[in-house]
Amino acid sequence: xxxxxxxxxxxxxxxxxxxxxxxxxxxxxxxxxxxxxxxxxxxxxxxxxxxxxxxxxxxxxxxxxxxxxxxxxxxxxxxxxxxxxxxxxxxxxxxxxxxxxxxxxxxxxxxxxxxxxxxxxxxxxxxxxxxxxxxxxxxxxxxxxxxxxxxxxxxxxxxxxxxxxxxxxxxxxxxxxxxxxxxxxxxxxxxxxxxxxxxxxxxxxxxxxxxxxxxxxxxxxxxxxxxxxxxxxxxxxxxxxxxxxxx
Length: 247
What we know:
The chain is of the alpha+beta class and 247 residues long. It is 32% helix and 21% strand. The strands form 3 sheets. A 5-stranded antiparallel beta sheet has the order 1-2-3-4-5, covered by helices on one side. It holds the Pfam family DUF6193.
């Protein structure tokens, strides 16, 4: 196991400023920006937090990696990750932080960032279930497209194309796809978990992740047909209606 480098050696320009927050503020000043960035006392050279005028945006921070020069930025909205990206250039971050802090839309933030940033979710300010479920499907679809896993991508796309499943909240555990009628814990009792093959092999259907295998099928269409047949009667109803997206 490689020894963790001294952060002052890995990030000398940050150490010279005394903290990551101070280094970010200095980079922002060079760009004519002012940032609401705060020092993280437990790890000042590798971690800093920032706030937003938008009340449902929270848990926002920049973190430096421990073994190689790189910074990660994350921002959550109503307990769900909205922005997440990595860059090797600290100067890429001030504009993203400023836009998030001042309430810019996610598309605007993503277009301004010189690195891949958006998770695929959209913000649902009032946390209405219909909007949160639609946002989660959008996140899963983006992740499936980005993943180097054709069978998983086909499973997610096939599941999303099924209206009865699309009304349910999709979630994964160890890349196995499951569904709930609520987007918040506790999820409804499990009725299906679908494992995607890696490379060759078929889809495995279980009642819950890591449960006994119930079926093995070769196509995502077959797997989704079984999932639909297993939906309990009380989950076949649409969730409470509400606005689908926060504009």
